[in-house]
Write a structure and sequence with these properties.
CATH superfamily of the largest domain: GntR ligand-binding domain-like
Strand content: under 5%
Helix content: over 70%
Number of domains: 2
Order of helices and strands: HEHHEEHHHHHH
Number of strands: 3
CATH class of the largest domain: Mainly Alpha
Distance between the termini: 58 Å
Radius of gyration: 19 Å
CATH topology of the largest domain: Four Helix Bundle (Hemerythrin (Met), subunit A)
Largest sheet: 3 strands, antiparallel
Strand order of the largest sheet: 1-3-2
CATH architecture of the largest domain: Up-down Bundle
């Protein structure tokens, strides 16, 4: 049983990463046989993973007709942003109250790893963007990690993944990284100073800045597709 659970978890991680990164694009029908060949895993763990991802919103279901990658819409993005912002702020408030020196050290370490990598990402985004995304996620996890609620952290993980799918689908923004990192520093400094109001305000601003960039990119792409459509 433990081996099956391990394979199910592996299938979950691999499929989720392919969806978030855009390798499995919006609207694509997810056929277990195709995924089995791609992932080199059995049908049972793949189906288990698809059902789990469907419960989290990264996969859609057509009743008995199978699974698919959900389309991207402004309404869905704004819904995700609202939930992620509220949960992130709540988690940070509790983490500032409960966090110890290990929590502080984890935030500083995560920030400095991003700072060290940033120039390389700007110079060669193709080679280092994936690593940056991992470090970005790790920084936000570090901020939230001392909140004391495993369930809240799980919900945040789901909201973050769904938000990241939009960012990766619409934006490749090495030129925006310095501003994002400035926002990270503002959040970090306020959190380490135990200034809850300043930290949560900075976090709200940071999340909203990212959403605004994605929304603008979505609208530009939509306008371009309308202009390109035959009359």
């Amino acid at each position: 049983m433990s081996e099956k659970l391990t394979m199910g978890e592996r299938a979950y991680e691999l499929i989720a990463h392919r969806i978030v990164s855009g390798r499995l694009p919006p609207g694509l029908k997810l056929k277990p046989d195709d995924l089995r060949e791609d992932l080199q895993l059995g049908t049972s763990p793949i189906r288990e993973a698809l059902l789990r991802l469907a419960s989290e919103g990264l996969v859609g279901m057509h009743g008995q007709r199978g699974f698919y990658v959900p389309q991207v819409t402004e309404e869905d993005l704004l819904d995700i942003a609202m939930v992620r912002t509220r949960l992130s702020v709540w988690a940070l408030e509790m983490a500032i109250e409960k966090g110890d020196s290990d929590w502080e050290a984890s935030i500083v370490a995560a920030f400095h790893k991003m700072q060290f990598l940033m120039k390389r990402v700007i110079d060669d985004p193709q080679a280092h963007f994936e690593e940056w995304e991992k470090l970005n996620a790790a920084f936000h996890r570090a901020l939230e990690s001392a909140c004391g609620s495993p369930l809240l952290l799980r919900f945040l993980q789901i909201a973050y993944a769904r938000s990241e799918r939009y960012r990766r689908h619409f934006v490749r923004y090495p030129d925006l990284l310095p501003k994002a990192q400035e926002e990270h520093k503002e959040i970090m400094d306020a959190a380490l100073a135990r200034d809850t109001i300043r930290a949560t305000d900075a976090l709200r601003t940071h999340i909203q800045s990212g959403i605004d960039v994605v929304l603008a990119a979505m609208r530009r792409r939509k306008a371009a597709s309308v202009q390109a459509a035959p009359a």
